[in-house]
Amino acid sequence: MTANSDDLDRRDALKLIAGGLGLAAVLVACAARGAAARAIPQDPPARDLQAVPNELYLADSSLHIINVYKIEAAVLRDSQGRSQAEILDRLAREVYAPYSTFWRGYLGDEATFRKWAESSLLARSHPIHTRVAALVRLNLDSLFTAGAAWVSHNTGHRPHGTWYIVFGPGWTDMGGFADGTMLADFTKMEPERDALEFKFPHEFTHMAGASAAARRDADSGTVLAGIISEGVASYATYVYAAGRLARAQSIGYTEPEWTWALAHERDLIAAAKPYLGSRVKADDDRLRARNQRLLVGGPTAVAYFLGFRIIEAYAAHHGAASWIDAMDLPAREVLARSGYQF
Ligand SMILES: [Zn+2]
Predict the structure, then answer these.
(1) Domain coverage including residue 126
(2) Ligand 1 centroid vs 17 CA: distance in angstroms?
């Protein structure tokens, strides 16, 4: 647990939903392509599951990885012939209790956890039954290590903090809480290496940049700060992909969405402008959530588009590698120095 994990609350969980879906469209597209390519055994061999540690440290101990999914899968695996009440008690004892701060922040209290486990996790149709074997084989550790190394090397900022790998309520695929704690929820995404690879540069850039920038930024917590943060993180993915992702894909847009946004860029800016200084969650959602549209007929999550355009303008002015400046500068200064006309 990180020092500020008590700050996790329902509001942060909801903020996480808004912020964590940056590459959902890319992921879904890639996952759909990969899933048809091969059949995956439904159950990992017991020894393979056993070999996954409950917790470990990676990247010179700067990342603390908590494999909650392994404990969930182990409990379900041993559930043959046991009553539902017994299974729920064991889930509460082994999955909920040791990580209660995380669960309270993401899902709710123990009663909520039990209710969710009973109605969702234990259902035959839950993705844990079909995805855990592929997840065990994925070698997620190597993706963490490689993603963190790329961000450290290219930005000069080392991401550090705690990641929870879970089968949860699926409210996000990947994202972060206000205190920097991160989560990957495989209820919401396929364990496909090709898709995950592009998500880590985005999330690690959030992790590496957020705390440093926020400490010095009078705009910390505003809609503008959110726009810049998503812009830098999405731009990091674009740079990482080195031509393998279009700009649209780097922000989780389809090509038609990107084209629409470009054609209506001045209208989007005018519509976003009144919200820039706001710290109201509804305003943040209006620009960041993947289910809200700032303009009728336009794409959702406009913060990703505007942020990307600001960082792109910044790099055009100050040089190809200059986008990393935006991890350190206050949000208003990034916007001013970018020359992007807001
Ligand atoms: Zn993001």
Answers:
(1) 5-192
(2) 10
